[in-house]
Amino acid sequence: MMKRILALFLCLLFLIPAVGCTDETAKTETLEVTATEEKKTEEEKKTIVDPWKKPDEPEVPTEEIVYAKPDQPLSWDRINAIPIANSSMSSEQLRQICVDFMQLSITFQWVASHNLKYTDPHGAPPVYKAGGLYGGIPYVSQASGNPYRWLLYYDSETGIMDMSSFLNNLRLFGTACSGTASWGWSRAINSSGLGFTGDLNAKNGCIPLGPYVYDHNTVRWGEDGFKDCQDVALDNGEQVMYESYAKVLTADCLVSNGHVTMANSPAVVVRNADGTINGEESYIMQCEQGLFNLTDAYKRTTADGTEYRIQANPNFKTTFAQLRQKGYLPHTFAEFLGTDPVEAGNAYLEGVEGTLVAQNLTNINLIANYNISDIFTTIRDAEGNAVYEQTFHAVGHYGRKQKGSKFLAVGEVMKVAAEPGRTIEIRVQLGNGELVTAFQGNLIQKAN
């Protein structure tokens, strides 16, 4: 036991960076934060909160940890039980796949390996106690954690999440409202740009539902100088918005200024005697990610009576009147409508066939047709032995393109490639649930 405590203490003492993040990634993030801080006054600098770079006082408890026992842990079996979407599926099947993945993301149980407290700009500081039981991926602003990535650090037998790898980069650990919903939609959708809340609009391929209209050239969610969701909801009038909410089906998108939810089921519509919609009686059941675990409303109990809190809202009711008042706009996606067939997952190295030249990695792009979660690279010698392995987590918000110098340490690959007989395999975990091979072939250091 003392060896375990000592090992955990050393991990925290040196704040091990997230596994697989290249030095270049770390440097880029540091530069971005520095550039932002330089624009602020000295007084503002004192109050800067950067939760994903350094949690508040991470620590290893000195007492013996008593670990909770989850009865609904995360596992590949649970993920694989959700089908991979394909073009022969009905709209109802595609929609249910997206909801099921989001529900899994926000409700599975996990046990904290460390004490961790961090302050998120959107709310009070969450506190995770070593050995404690929690539900769902934690809320972290502008983050991109997901179940695929969690399982790389998660013990499906015990439910223990090895948090030591994330203490220096919480963006890999947690997620936000748009992140959880986008990973859910990515199980079937690639016709739209899925990412931040502000990306979920007609300009990026989302399709407005019902009779309401807006000009995506003059509307931006939460940007100064533009109309926003609240303006659109008011400009279109009460009954126009109610009729639009009435078109919402399972897995459709409801987006406002700074928040997004996913519909769990079709809208329930109640009409008045004159045929108009009763906005107080009509409603939509939804799921959402948010910083909710601090209240007893989100308390749950395991089969053996252990209490824990989920960190999202898996099923809540909002009336049409409330939706319009809060400025929520309903959207759907082409795949749900059958106007853009679902594609099988695919990834490739742009312009590379047969042999990869390590020297060219800085100018080579990996392209995928779904959001990229993680990239796994293995280099082997002539006998087939692995001599180099790299795991890269796509920290950027849900991109489908990564430059070679971003997901590989070019200098290290150059050294490994100097020996003859090297081969390289690059696999990609896509948002649709598929693990695909982007490249498999020879590796040489320089072109002849």
What do these coordinates show?
By secondary structure, this protein is of the alpha+beta class. The chain has three domains: 2-90 and 110-172, no CATH class; 178-337, no CATH class; 347-444, Sandwich (Immunoglobulin-like). It has helices at 2-13, 23-38, 42-46, 76-80, 91-107, 147-150, 177-185, 229-235, 238-245, 320-325, 334-337, 404-407, 410-417, and strands at 56-59, 109-112, 115-117, 127-128, 133-135, 160-161, 207-208, 253-256, 259-263, 283-289, 299-301, 307-310, 312-319, 329-332, 347-349, 355-357, 365-368, 372-380, 386-393, 401-403, 423-430, 435-444. The strands form five sheets. The chain has a six-stranded antiparallel β-sheet. A five-stranded mixed β-sheet has the order 6-2-5-12-11, with no helix packed on it. It is globular, with a radius of gyration of 23 Å. 41% of the residues are buried. The model is unreliable at 1-54 (pLDDT under 50).
